[in-house]
Amino acid sequence: MTQLFQNLHHVCIVVHDLEKTVAYYESLGVGPWFDYPKKGAYVEFDVPNKAASDAMRYKCCDIDNVQIQLCDPGSLDSPQKHFLDERGEGVYHLGFEVADRDAAEAQGRALGLGVVARGKRTDGSGFCYFDTREKAGIVLEVRKS
């Protein structure tokens, strides 16, 4: 059985003010920052609120061993917005790179993990957020770029 959560790709931090947070990181020498690169349309896209998902803003920074993602969830109803309102700024999820998105989602479901959101493109890339908040404290994501 392949280990789902072995190859850490990114840490996603939910924040109130994207520009202010990026400026602070840059003042510490962390950067450069870039907009999250959306790679195209999903053929499957199951999220709690598509409008909220579309409205979220992300900035990313690749450091030597991992990517940092900052997420401003905006004002629409989403799991990220709930997290920010209930807990304040902080790590919302860890994203792990996998070789096969579909197999990773199936393996997670077989382990009894619920799914918060998922998306898949025609080339097999995409993501699956597992609902691991209660036991892991955060969401765990598998993704294929």
UniProtKB/TrEMBL annotation:
Any one biological process term the GO annotation gives: L-methylmalonyl-CoA metabolic process
Oxidoreductase among keywords: yes
Pfam families, per the entry: Glyoxalase_4 (PF13669)
Chain ranges of the VOC domain: 7-145
Superkingdom field: Bacteria
UniProt keyword list: Dioxygenase, Metal-binding, Oxidoreductase
Gene Ontology molecular function, alphabetical: dioxygenase activity; metal ion binding; methylmalonyl-CoA epimerase activity
InterPro entries registered for this protein in UniProt: Glyas_Bleomycin-R_OHBP_Dase (IPR029068), MMCE/EMCE_epimerase (IPR051785), VOC_core (IPR037523)
Descriptive protein name: Glyoxalase/bleomycin resistance protein/dioxygenase superfamily protein
Organism: Rhizobium subbaraonis
Highest classification ranks of the organism: Bacteria, Pseudomonadati, Pseudomonadota, Alphaproteobacteria, Hyphomicrobiales
